[in-house]
Structure formats: C-alpha cells, structure tokens
Design a protein that fits this description.
The complex is a heterodimer of chains A (about 230) and B (about 280). In chain A, strands 1, 3, 4, 6, 11, 12, 13 and 15 form an 8-stranded antiparallel β-sheet that branches. Chain A has a 7-stranded antiparallel β-sheet with strand order 2-5-14-7-8-9-10, with no helix packed on it. The longest helix of chain A has 23 residues, at about 1-25. Chain A is of the alpha+beta class and about 230 residues long. In chain A, about 15% of the residues lie in helices and about 45% in strands. Helix content of chain B is about 15%, strand content about 30%. Chain B has helices spanning about 1-20, 60-65, 265-275, and strands spanning about 25-30, 35-40, 40-45, 70, 90-95, 100-105, 125-130, 150-155, 170, 180-185, 190-195, 200, 205, 215-220, 230-235, 250-260. In chain B, strands 1, 2, 3, 4, 5, 6, 7, 8, 9, 10, 11, 14, 15 and 16 form a 14-stranded mixed β-sheet that branches. In chain B, strands 12-13 form a two-stranded antiparallel sheet. Mean pLDDT of chain B is about 90; it is low at about 1-20 and about 270-278. The chains are: A alpha+beta (about 230), B alpha+beta (about 280). At the A-B interface, helix 1, strand 10 and strand 13 of A face helix 1 of B.
Chain lengths: ~230, ~280
C-alpha cells in the first residue's frame, strides 16, 4: 500500500509539473514550405527560398558573420531550438553554419557552430560580429552528406546539444554574457549553399507570430516535447 | 478490464518515473557518517588517522562504506553520453595522516586503454583528479609551493599495474605529485583507488584541520571506439567549459571534516536504529 501511495504521489507530482510547464511554453515553427520568409530579416548574405528551405547561397561583404534574424515580438530566455541543416552539391564540409540565440542585437549573442569537415561542433559567443568558441568536441557521427537534425536546449547558462537524437555537447557560459534575445541563422564560411529547414522554438512567451506560418497547438504535441525535455534535465 | 488497463498504465508510468529519478546526479550519504556536501559544489571529506584504505581497487574498506559518495550521471559534462551504462561515475574521498584517498567507481561499457598514455590518456578511458591546495581559485595554474595547482590523470591503462608506481599524467606536473593508484576492471567498468600525498615535495604540505577547504574536481574521459575522446563527464558545477586543466577557478571545493570513518556501517546503522526505537 505504501508503494502504491508513493507511486500516486509521484504521478501527481509529475502531472503538476507537466501542467506547470505546458501552461507557459509556447511554440514557433517555420518549415519554409510556403516559400515566404515572413519574419526573417537578412542582415548579411545572399538568402533565398528554395525547395522548402531558407538557403544561404553565398556570403556578401567583407564581414565573416552572415546571418538572418527572426524579428520576433518575443525574446527567448530558456528555450528548446531545433532545426535541420544540409548543404548544396559540392560541399566538402568547410561551411560553418550557425544558429544564433539570445541575440541582443545583430552583432552580439550566443551561437552554435557546426564544423563538418572536422566532425565537430561547438557553442560560442558572437561579440561585435566576431565568434569566439566556448567549448566544442569532435565526434565521428557527424556526416554532412545527410541532413543534420540538431536540438539546442537553452537552460540558464547551460546549453545542451543533441545531434541526430544523440546527446553531443553540454556547454555553459560561466560569465552569463547574454540572458535574453532573438534567434537567428547564419554562417561564418559559405563555400557551398547552406539549407536551413524546419526551425522550431519552444519556450516561455514564444508565439507563432507571422501570418504565413503554420498554425500550432501550443498545448499539444510540441509543448509536450518542451515539457519532456525540461523534465528530463 | 478498462480499470485494470488504466491501473497497469499508471504503474508503468510510475515505474518509469521512479527509474528516471534514480539515475540523476545525487549525493549518496544515507549510510555515511558525515553529510556529503552539495553536488557539484562541495565534497565533505572525513579525516582521521585511522581512515586508511588499502589501495587494491577493492572498495570494501570500512572507510569507503562510511564515506559519502557523489554520483555523476551520463549527462553532466561537456561531452554527455547516451546513458549511464555508457559513462557515469560515483566517487568518494577520505583522508588519514598521510594521504588523501579518492575512490572513483566508473561505469563504462566499452574499455579503451591501448592507444594513449600519460599526458595523452585523456583521449582514452581515464579519470582526472584536480587539487588546488590553497583554494586560490585563480584563472591560471599557480606553481608556488603551497599553492601548486595540479591535474592528476589516471588511465585504464593501469590495469594490473603497481599501485605504488602508476602511469600518470596531467597538467601542473600531475605525474610527479607522488600519487599512488590501483586501477582494476569491473563488470560494469573500472575502479580507480588513488592516494594523493598530503605532503608533495615542492608542491604542497597540507595540515588537516576541521573545516579546511581545498579546490577539488573530478573528471571522466570516455573513449568507446579508439581515436578521439567520445564523452567527457565533469563533477564541478563551476566547470561548464572543460577548462579545469588550465583554470582552477573552475574547480569546486573539498572540505575536510574530522570524522572517524573506518567503522562497520552495519554496526553503526543498527545502533542508530536502536537509538531511534528507544
């Protein structure tokens, strides 16, 4: 009987936790299938819509940092950001795609960086458009020949990265450089076109704000994912 | 039938919840003589002249049974692993008049110990013990006597080796700290039982007293398939970027607590229970 009571207490606690999380978690999704980049503002680089992806065709200007910023009415603090990235024909892995988060402006924030030819990825700082690595590690599973599905859990000053469903990297910023901001996509090197697909953001205050974007039931499937990730940490 | 199905589902969900909570980071001190501190921030280490353990890779010493343990799960570090069986660890520390003993019980389903050695052993299966004797917490390693920061790397390459002469590596001249270590393979991974001298010539000379704090950290390197390291686990909550090898400010703390730990845990618990019953 005591065990059953203990289990029931656990279930009640879990249900309360789930309700608490789903009450506040919102969702933004852009799969780019409609061919419109509503909400996205190119800052640098030649960006085009093609085949259900937002594609960074080539770099422009002398600055290394190429990016497009999502001009959302909300800022993210803690969130789960997921996306898929692939490369155009001829890519050999020297491209350096980025997903930027907690961007305070177009030049400052955090960034996740994929380094295909080195089979590695890292998280770092963008400060005055310059990238500096906080921490990264190589792993043999990285293969740019196939689309890479990446999830970044942003939790306080700790960033947990999953690559194709495999836990890959857990990095923290001990100096807490950026606490809130927008998200963006971009690259430091654009040797071949970089395709960004199915970008999803889950977190407190996040909304599906742009008129052409997919309707999302924030209390349904996606919010549950957010809750599961939070509960698992 | 429906009620039964719901009941089974509830039990299944509950079981999953209970299982999931057992694998998280935790301080295990229910059976310990002293409280264990705070995970990732503070380890409380009992010291007494009789807290001596035998370096043989066997953790049945009475002191280990009465010491608190900290469990580091597979997600905690810059290179998380898929599950606890792949990579996780628990560790404890005790001290007598001459040595700081550290036991690290590693879960590792695939051992790689043939490719890299000594200062490069971080690319194979290995653990690292970090010491900041004056708890200076500086941004770079100090090398003054009494303040000598060090990283002591101990690899699974030491299986079958002499405890008094292990192959060691690490920055801050970790190989020459006078550390002894027994490393043995287990059914679920391996055990490192290390003894770090309280007096290391030219580096430090610790006089233990109740409440003395030193900088301290534990790392685990996991290599599953040769080549580069696959996973990296880190105990210190201050080390979010794997910089302990060159930056002592990333260490957490170890506090020495005057406590006689070489007692039979079974006897101690019985006495406590009897006392409570009275």
């Amino acid at each position: 009987m005591a065990l059953i009571m203990h289990m029931m207490q656990r279930i009640a606690y879990g249900a309360t936790l789930l309700l608490a999380v789903t009450s506040y978690g919102g969702v933004f999704v852009d799969d780019f299938e409609d061919g419109v980049a509503n909400g996205w503002r190119p800052v640098r680089g030649d960006w085009v819509m093609r085949d259900g992806a937002y594609v960074l065709e080539e770099a422009d200007g002398l600055d290394e940092l190429q990016l497009a910023v999502l001009d959302s009415p909300w800022l993210i603090t803690d969130a789960v950001i997921s996306f898929t990235v692939s490369f155009g024909d001829g890519a050999v892995g020297v491209e350096r795609p980025l997903v930027l988060f907690r961007l305070e402006d177009d030049d400052n924030g955090y960034a996740f960086r994929l380094r295909g030819d080195e089979k590695s990825m890292d998280v770092g700082l963008i400060e005055a458009r310059e990238y500096s690595n906080i921490r990264g590690d190589p792993k043999d599973v990285i293969d740019i020949g196939d689309p890479s599905s990446i999830v970044i859990e942003v939790d306080g000053n700790i960033f947990f990265v999953t690559y194709n469903d495999e836990a890959f990297l857990r990095v923290g910023d001990v100096d807490d450089h950026f606490t809130a901001g927008r998200i963006g996509i971009g690259a430091l090197v654009v040797d071949a076109p970089i395709h960004f697909e199915e970008i999803r953001v889950e977190g407190d205050g996040v909304t599906q704000f742009a008129p052409d974007l997919l309707p999302v039931d924030a209390t349904g499937r996606l919010a549950l994912t957010w809750a599961e990730l939070k509960a698992a940490r | 039938m429906r009620k039964r199905a719901v009941g089974v589902a509830l039990v299944a969900v509950s079981a999953a919840w209970l299982v999931s909570t057992t694998a998280a980071n935790e301080v295990i001190d229910d059976a310990a003589t002293i409280s264990g501190g705070e995970f990732g921030l503070l380890y409380r280490c009992g010291f007494n002249s009789q807290n001596t353990v035998e370096l043989d890779g066997d953790l049945s010493d009475l002191a280990w049974g009465a010491a608190p343990w900290h469990f580091v799960d597979h997600k905690t570090g810059t290179g998380p692993a898929p599950n606890d069986e792949n990579a996780s660890l628990r560790f404890a520390a005790v001290a007598d008049d001459e040595w700081l003993y550290v036991a690290i019980d590693v879960n590792d389903d695939v051992i790689q110990n043939q490719e890299d050695s000594a200062n490069d052993v971080w690319k194979d299966d290995s653990v690292e013990i970090y010491i900041d004797p004056n708890d200076g917490g500086t941004d770079a390693y100090e090398n003054d006597e009494g303040a000598w920061d060090t990283q002591i790397s101990i690899g699974a390459e030491n299986f079958g080796g002499r405890a008094s002469g292990p192959i060691l590596g690490g920055s801050g001249d970790g190989a020459n700290t006078g550390t002894h270590a027994a490393v043995v393979e287990t059914a679920t991974g391996y055990i490192v039982e290390a003894a770090i001298p309280l007096e290391s010539d030219g580096k430090w000379d610790l006089t233990l007293e109740d409440g003395l704090i030193i900088g301290f950290n534990i790392h685990m390197n996991d290599d599953d398939d040769g080549g580069e390291r696959d996973n990296k686990l880190i105990w210190s909550a201050n080390d979010l970027d794997d910089q302990s090898w060159q930056n002592p400010s990333r260490f957490a703390d170890l506090e020495f607590v005057a406590a006689f730990l070489a007692v039979d845990p079974a006897g101690k618990l019985s006495t406590t229970w009897a006392g409570l019953k009275r």
